[in-house]
Amino acid sequence: MDLQTLREIVGNENVLTQKEDLIVYSYDGTAAQDHQLPLAVVFARTTGEVSAIVKLCAAEGLPLVTRGSGTGLSGGSMPPAGALVLCLTKMDQILEVDSRNLTLLCEAGAITQTVAARAEQAGLFYPPDPGSGKISTIGGNVAENSGGLRGLKYGVTRNYVMGMEVVLADGSVIWLGNKCVKDVAGYSMKDVFIGSEGTLGIITKVLLKLIPKPAARKTLLAVYDRMESAAETVSAIIAAQIIPCTLEFLDRVTIGCVEGYAKIGLPLDAEAILLMETDGHAAAVNEEAAAMEALARQNGARSVQVAQSVEESNKLAAARRTAFSALARVSPTTILEDATVPRSELAKMVRRIQEIAKQYDLKIGTFGHMGDGNLHPTFLTNEKNHVEMERVEKAMVEIFDYAVELGGTITGEHGVGIAKKPFLAKALGDGSIALFRSLKQSLDPKGILNPGKIFDAA
After folding, report:
1. Is 407 left (phi over 0), alpha (psi -120 to 50) or beta?
2. How far, in Å, CA of 16 to CA of 26, rounded?
3. Which is the most buried residue in 12, 19, 205, 365, by most CB within 10 A?
4. Thinking of the domain 216-324, which architecture would CATH place it in?
5. Pairing of β 124-125 and β 211-212
6. How far from the centroid of its chain's Cα atoms is residue 133's Cα?
7. Topology of 94-212 in CATH?
8. Which residues, other chains included, contact 149 with Cβ-Cβ below 8 Å and sequence gap of 6+?
């Protein structure tokens, strides 16, 4: 590629070619993956620049990988050798907050937390809250269909995307969707791009749905001596037709790591803790909190703490929100995995993970979204220990095989990328992979957009 042409499009200061700069953009948040240096990194500031860059790559058949902050956990934004990395972090503007239609329009590089803050300033609420929300971008959230702690009640990113601007593989620019609450005209093409991990097009602007801000919330923390009791509590809460905004759990390994890190006062002898949070109208919140406390005690909780203030609520929530950071301190390499099973199978899945950890002599801390069945078995290991890494790989295969056997899936929110690619066909079947390839061929016939992610070319 003629790098001078790139510099003419975006300016010299927006093209990186030095090795020490390229190394940074050869990684994302995924551990224990081989990385390759890209040809260059280019920062676009407008959709027009993105279009011109894509046209240049299309003309030369050059692989193009789009990224935001690089917080992904499946290797989705890691480039193949010699690819061009297109970074959208400079396209970070909030373009409109429309309180009449409850929407927010922003560029793809806008930070998730910034979007939530701007919604709150307008007295509104943007529910998706991925763990990386302080630094992740909306474009990345949409490309990965990110989830978060509030997914049980409020859903994932897909549920809040009303429209988007997309640059296709030939450089053409299209707009999909609108501010209408109802629209069934034609194929829902925006949904094709949500979760497509940059393999079908480049998302440059996103129109998001906002909702009224909940008037009140209440947080509870229940402690258990048996994992089954925590799972039974979750089943009882759902059976009682209560849908909390948060229903999270930590296992014994994770509790120990969190307490050592955050000094919250968690009981180190507990088998599990359950973080429960309800929000909405004040009267309903109080009623639901009381009901959840009673159900937790009825199902074996040895203690239930109810936050009496916002500060105490934030402290209890920190037990879950700091889980990954706490686990990452224990070993040189932290591999945060992602598997989802039906809620009825949660206890089985957690027990099986514990058995697999013992079988392969590994340390695995498990936490996650018990309310929606999404678990994060986290391997505490050392990627330089090749013998141990072989055991880690075998353990992963068993975990994902068992999740699928229970009627689950290999990822609930992290995406496929390259890390989950080997497990996709077993989870979805060859027919689905063939359909994916057909769609990819139609929208990106030269195969330049994020090649090698999700599935291999035929």
Report:
1. left
2. 12
3. 365
4. 2-Layer Sandwich (3.30)
5. antiparallel
6. 9
7. 3.30.465
8. 129, 131, 246, 248, 320, 321, 369
